[in-house]
Write a structure and sequence with these properties.
Distance between the termini: 23 Å
Largest sheet: 2 strands, antiparallel
Shape: elongated
Order of helices and strands: HEEHHHHHHHHHHH
Number of domains: 2
Length: 320
């Protein structure tokens, strides 16, 4: 069921640095903070005159900023780390700091969603640091300037603080999904050792790699490493599609009585794995999310080992 693919992935440090630096470059090359500083003086985002404009890129249009009394020049009016538009969409007050900031009558049972793009969020955090005057204006445009000038956004303390914030978001996004045992199809027959053997065999088939992935004749780790190094995601997408099929296949299997929890865990692990593959496959669009996915992938190995041990103990309990 677990296959050979649950092995540690060791990525060269330079790759991870390259991914992170990509996030910093987004700040400098895509204009997110281009007008934050003028001749060394702190300024805020200019307010566009159009009601439907969103000059601070926080998800709220100018007319909506007026309704919620948020600052149209500041993407995080209350400074609690959540974008104004994100807070409103999730049922929280964008002008009151978390955690006691739920809007009256709002359903906040669901956790606040992680940003769709962690790299953009990282850039927005750094932009806020610049606009608050915590760092000096940027002088120069090359990547060497970004890495070597302590006054640029690549400042160590500033970067660490920003990474903590996006790290919390990534941890929430890559948390192991909850699969309810009530949603598992369970056999009505008594559980026997023979029935367990048939179940394990079916699970092994359901969670196996697709023919397209097998034809690559490469380990899962090699596919991921090659994709990150080459930025060619063709093989990565095959792996992602294969994982999606695995999830559906396992969901269609009937679990023996007493194996509901085991079955739910396997589905949850496959769902997390697919989310990791999807993030890596979109490395160019969101390098910060891809970096978080790679870290989660390494942690997933340990989780699978614990799951395997639990499964073995469960099987042994039914041995004659």
């Amino acid at each position: 069921m677990l296959n050979e693919r649950r092995k540690n992935i060791v990525l060269p440090v330079v790759l991870l640095l390259g991914i992170f630096i990509g996030g910093v470059v987004v700040l400098r090359t895509q204009g997110i903070g281009a007008q934050v500083l003028t001749e060394g003086k702190k300024v805020l985002f200019p307010i566009a005159s159009e009601p439907d404009a969103d000059p601070d890129n926080d998800g709220l249009k100018n007319w909506e900023e007026g309704i919620y009394k948020t600052d149209p020049r500041n993407p995080d009016t209350d400074g609690d780390g959540y974008l104004d538009g994100e807070e409103v969409a999730s049922g929280y007050d964008p002008v009151v700091k978390a955690p006691n900031d739920a809007l009256e009558g709002a359903d906040t049972n669901s956790p606040r969603p992680a940003p769709k793009n962690l790299t953009t969020y990282l850039a927005q955090i750094l932009t806020q640091k610049i606009s608050s005057g915590e760092i000096s204006p940027a002088q120069g445009n090359s990547l060497d300037d970004v890495k070597n000038d302590p006054d640029l956004p690549y400042n160590k303390d500033l970067v660490n603080e920003a990474l903590v914030q996006i790290g919390l978001r990534a941890k929430e996004y890559f948390a192991l999904p909850v699969v309810r045992t009530e949603d598992i199809s369970v056999s009505s027959s008594p559980t026997t050792y023979e029935a367990i053997g048939a179940y394990i065999s079916a699970m092994g088939q359901a969670a196996s790699r697709s023919q397209e992935v097998n034809q690559l004749n490469k380990s899962e780790v090699s596919i991921i490493k090659d994709a990150v190094e080459s930025k060619d995601m063709a093989e990565m997408n095959l792996l992602r599609v294969s994982a999606q099929k695995n999830i559906e296949n396992v969901k269609n299997i009937t679990a023996p009585q007493g194996f509901e929890s085991i079955h739910a865990q396997q589905i949850a692990l496959l769902m997390l794995e697919e989310k990791i593959f999807d993030a890596v496959a979109h490395l160019d669009e969101d390098p910060a999310m891809a970096a978080a996915a790679l870290e989660t992938y390494q942690q997933l190995v340990t989780t699978y080992q614990a799951f395997s041990e639990e499964l073995n103990l469960k099987i042994q309990s039914y041995q004659k």
